[in-house]
């Protein structure tokens, strides 16, 4: 991996960046090129974002300019194109970069969906010049790591503050290298997720050179190509894609088939295998909290993939379960598949159940009235299992009433242990996962 470290602030010590191959100084951050910033063997790159000033370009340094203003100088020139709105199709990207007049051409595009990363890879195969092609934003971080796959001349990291969205630090990039294991989580509206902290802690504990990324996307389009072509070892799947992902995998394990929900996908040399580790997480969360689910009267709130896994677990344990939610079509579908009773929330007497299990994504940002039932009716004798981790309105009420509470963090950690094992074939302790949440 050839790394260009971008200086994000003026107080960077040259010794801190001595291991980088290249050093970038940007004119929107620096008025002049810092003296003695380069060590022997390093290449300097001055990047203009506010008009080229020839007198600022040191001898022997490369210059990064917009594709419309190549200066008449003997330096190596990188001509750049930025699209801060999105990612055009592959043909358009290749056409733009192939027409640019530079010794190296660079394109940076905002990645808004997983398919945009695949588009960048497609485009890279049609660019005839030496190039750097990068996806901006957290969804595009993978393009910075997989330099070889994109056939990029070099990649970027930052020292000090990040200088572009989705950058990793120099130390992070150097520790990872080209061939690190990449895993992650795919969902929509998942900026809150603690899975990266949990899995990255596990990578460190197990001594594995890997990183777990967040892929927050509004669509699963081309997700199978993304996983395979970028060499992603595996991903967790969360809302709202636990059922939709099934059409993109080659095969599912028995529990995934039974629940109709996949929350873990493993890339087995190009064959995508779907698993459900949520059921394992639910089972272990009950066990570690000394709650025996056998024969309980249970109320499930929600109608997504988590509710499916919960309905399966309860039916396997002979529970008398009822399910309710705002999407009654999905509620009825789950009820018919798992022999649980569907009910409109307004007709549910909350006090009639031993355990209340929240499978909705509702948290403190939502109103209490958005729960499908009146959670104020919970009484101290009931058990509350809130799959949403962190403190929620449901958690608040259960705590006030001194109910026995099964935390979503426990379930998350246990399903994460199983997912990590599928990704790496390594066992990791519960404490490693749980303490990182």
Describe the structure.
The model has no long low-confidence stretch (mean pLDDT 94). Helix 1 (90-99) crosses helix 2. The two termini are 31 Å apart. Helix content is 28%, strand content 23%. It folds into 3 domains: 3-179, Aldolase class I (TIM Barrel, Alpha-Beta Barrel), CATH 3.20.20.70; 182-279 and 413-436, Leucine Dehydrogenase, chain A, domain 1 (Rossmann fold), CATH 3.40.50.10860; 289-408, 3-Layer(aba) Sandwich (Rossmann fold). The chain is of the alpha/beta class. The strands form 3 sheets. It has an 8-stranded parallel beta sheet. Strands 10-9-11-13-14-12 form a 6-stranded mixed beta sheet, sandwiched between helices.
Total strands: 20
- The name of the CATH architecture of the largest domain is Alpha-Beta Barrel
Name of the top-level CATH class of the largest domain: Alpha Beta
Q: Percentage of helical residues?
A: 25-40%
Average pLDDT level? 94
| The CATH fourth-level homologous superfamily of the largest domain | Aldolase class I
How far from one another are the termini? 31 Å
**Residue ranges: pLDDT <50 for 5 or more in a row?**
none
Walk me through the topology:
Layout: E1 3-7, E2 22-26, E3 43-47, E4 62-66, E5 77-83, H1 90-99, E6 104-110, H2 114-124, E7 131-136, H3 141-145, E8 155-159, H4 170-176, E9 181-187, H5 195-206, E10 210-216, H6 223-229, E11 232-237, E12 251-252, H7 254-259, E13 264-268, E14 271-275, H8 278-288, E15 297-301, H9 305-316, E16 320-324, H10 328-338, E17 341-342, E18 355-358, E19 383-386, H11 393-400, E20 404-407, H12 408-424, H13 430-436
Parallel strand pairs: 1-2, 1-8, 2-3, 3-4, 4-5, 5-6, 6-7, 9-10, 9-11, 12-14, 15-16, 15-18, 16-17, 18-19, 19-20
Antiparallel strand pairs: 11-13, 13-14
Helix pairs in contact: 1-2, 2-6, 5-12, 5-13, 8-9, 8-12
């Amino acid at each position: 991996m050839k790394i260009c470290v971008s200086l994000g602030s003026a107080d960077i010590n040259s010794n801190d960046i001595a291991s980088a191959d290249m050093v970038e100084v940007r004119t929107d951050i620096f008025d002049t090129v810092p003296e003695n910033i380069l060590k022997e063997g390093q290449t300097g790159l001055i990047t203009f974002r506010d008009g080229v000033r020839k007198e600022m370009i040191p001898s022997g340094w490369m210059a990064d300019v917009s594709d419309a203003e190549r200066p008449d100088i003997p330096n190596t020139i990188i001509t750049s194109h930025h699209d801060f709105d999105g990612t055009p199709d592959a043909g358009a990207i290749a056409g733009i970069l192939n027409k640019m007049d530079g010794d190296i051409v660079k394109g940076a595009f905002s990645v808004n969906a997983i398919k945009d990363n695949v588009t960048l890879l497609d485009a890279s195969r049609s660019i005839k010049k030496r190039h750097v092609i990068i996806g901006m934003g957290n969804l595009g971080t993978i393009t910075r790591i997989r330099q070889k796959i994109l056939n990029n001349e070099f990649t970027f990291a930052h020292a000090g503050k990040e200088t572009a969205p989705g950058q990793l630090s120099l130390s992070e990039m150097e520790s990872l290298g080209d061939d690190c294991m990449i895993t992650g989580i795919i969902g929509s509206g998942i900026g809150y997720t603690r899975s990266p902290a949990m899995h990255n802690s596990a990578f460190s504990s197990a001594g594995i050179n890997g990183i777990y990324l967040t892929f927050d996307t509004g669509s699963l389009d081309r997700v199978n190509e993304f996983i395979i072509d970028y060499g992603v070892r595996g991903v967790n799947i969360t809302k709202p894609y636990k059922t939709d992902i099934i059409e993109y995998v080659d095969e599912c394990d028995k529990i995934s088939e039974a629940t109709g929900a996949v929350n873990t996908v493993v890339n087995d040399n190009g064959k995508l295998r779907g698993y459900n580790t949520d059921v394992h997480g639910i089972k272990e969360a009950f066990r570690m909290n000394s709650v025996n689910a056998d024969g309980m009267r249970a109320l499930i709130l929600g109608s997504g993939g988590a509710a499916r896994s919960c309905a399966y677990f309860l039916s396997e344990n002979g529970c008398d379960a009822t399910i309710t939610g705002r999407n009654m079509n999905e509620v009825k579908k789950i009820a018919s598949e798992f022999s649980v009773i569907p009910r409109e929330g307004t007709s549910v007497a909350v006090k009639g159940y031993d355990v209340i299990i929240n499978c909705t994504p509702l948290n403190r940002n939502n109103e209490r009235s958005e729960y499908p039932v009146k959670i104020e009716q919970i009484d101290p004798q009931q058990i509350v299992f809130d799959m949403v981790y962190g403190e929620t309105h449901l958690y608040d009420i259960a705590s006030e009433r001194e109910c026995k509470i099964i935390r979503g963090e426990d379930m998350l950690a246990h399903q994460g242990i199983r997912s990590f094992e599928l990704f790496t074939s390594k066992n990791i302790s519960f404490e490693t996962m749980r303490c990182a949440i």
